[in-house]
Amino acid sequence: MVIVAPSILSADFSKLGEEIKAVERAGAEWIHIDVMDGHFVPNLTMGPHIVSCVRKITNLFLDVHLMVENPERFVGSFSRSGADGITFHIEACNDPLKVIEVIRKSGCKVGISINPPTPVDSIAEFIDKVDLVLIMSVNPGFSGQKFIPDVLKKVKLVREKLNRLPRKVLLQVDGGINGETGKLAREAGADVLVSGSFIFGSEDYGKAIRDLLGR
After folding, report:
1. CATH number of the domain residue 145 falls in
2. Which end of the chain is more exposed for a tag (fewer CB within 10 A), N or C?
3. Is 174 a catalytic residue?
4. Rounded-to-integer distance, Cα 73 and Cα 138, Å
5. Of 63, 84, 174, 191, which is the active-site residue?
6. Cα separation of 80 and 173, whole Å?
């Protein structure tokens, strides 16, 4: 069963609580929270306080995506704020094993991510040590970008690698996900689809989520 994780980066922050309750009623199982530092990516977004506020209004899995340099510095504050999973970028750290250990010790699920230009080989030695692999299908920084089709080759390759592991590691795809590209990502082996503007920009959140699930 594929999991849909609405990215609140595209939500209306003037009524964020209502937006989260709406996607929860519509069938979302996770809430995706994009954290950007203005250095690793050219944008600034949410901090631990937002996670803490979201935690108060939902029991859904809070999927925190750290697009920040030196991610180990931020793990503690986000885990204490209520994150269930924390994903970091291989491109943003010098010691991935250290970051994995810090996240694991915080009590959160561990995710590792790569950007579109980054080869799968860069994370090959770490995928058996994490709970989730995130393949970015746009260059991170801003919502509403178009899906990069070549990324599907990476999704398929990572799926093959994960299938050989003795335990379940989820495969997530994020960026430009809509009904059409979501289908392509599912067929390539994605377990989790992150979608922002397709869901929050629609008039019917339930229909948008059903489209992502292929229902």
Report:
1. 3.20.20.70
2. N
3. yes
4. 25
5. 174
6. 26
